[in-house]
Specification:
This protein is α/β, with parallel strands linked by helices. Helix content is about 55%, strand content about 15%.
């Protein structure tokens, strides 16, 4: 009988050997369950509705529909599915594209088994996991904003919301914590992004910690 606490994981990678290795890794984790494998973004989209994964490990450079496009579409159709970009590439443009598309994490394929398992569990809990290279790319990008705009004029409520973002809460959880509607929580998050000059949660969290806006 399936454990109700098992995290359902889907693999998306065009290399068979990579999928086999990841499948073997998942088999050794009692709280993680492999529910599907796809060779590209198109297969991933077709499979999502059928297997309903909790977390997807998504390669980015694939034929047909690439990982960034698949991540964006999955986020629009199934917003509860968490996606971790798992790739060999660390170009800052690709990192930004993946995070803007909705990936909650960005890891390189040299990640250890323990780190990958922890990232999957964190993603399932709504928390980001970023490779050091991804963090550095975000810091380098946000430093351009801090040079000319050190103050962000966040309201007291927006500071509360930013603190909850750093804590790893999603919009629904923020709404519940603050006893407001999801639409209101989403609006606060959008205003924070605009004021801080960032495009996504990972960038906002990185900037908040780097500038000591939130401890």
């Amino acid at each position: 009988m399936q454990n109700s606490r098992t995290i359902k994981v889907m693999l998306v990678d065009d290399h068979d050997m990579v999928r086999r290795g990841l499948a073997a890794f998942l088999q050794g984790m009692p709280d993680l369950e492999l529910v599907g494998e796809a060779r590209d973004g198109a297969e991933a989209l077709a499979m999502c509705n059928r297997v309903q994964p909790d977390v997807i490990l998504m390669d980015l450079m694939m034929p047909e529909v690439d990982g960034v496009a698949a991540t964006r579409t999955i986020g629009e159709r199934w917003p509860d599915i968490k996606i971790i970009a798992l790739t060999s590439f660390q170009e800052k443009e690709l990192i930004h594209e993946a995070l803007r598309a909705g990936a909650i994490g960005y890891l390189l394929k040299n990640v250890t088994v323990e780190e990958l398992a922890a990232a999957i569990r964190s993603a399932h809990a709504g928390q980001s996991s970023l490779a050091p290279e991804a963090v550095q790319a975000l810091i380098n990008a946000t430093s351009l904003h801090t040079q000319s705009k050190p103050a962000y004029n966040l309201t007291e409520r927006e500071m509360e919301v930013l603190a909850l973002l750093v804590e790893g809460l999603n919009n629904r959880e923020i709404a519940e914590r603050l006893i407001v509607s999801r639409a209101t929580a989403k609006a606060h998050v959008s205003h924070i992004f605009d004021k801080m000059g960032v495009s996504n949660r990972a960038e906002a969290i990185t900037l908040a910690l780097r500038e000591n806006i939130i401890d």
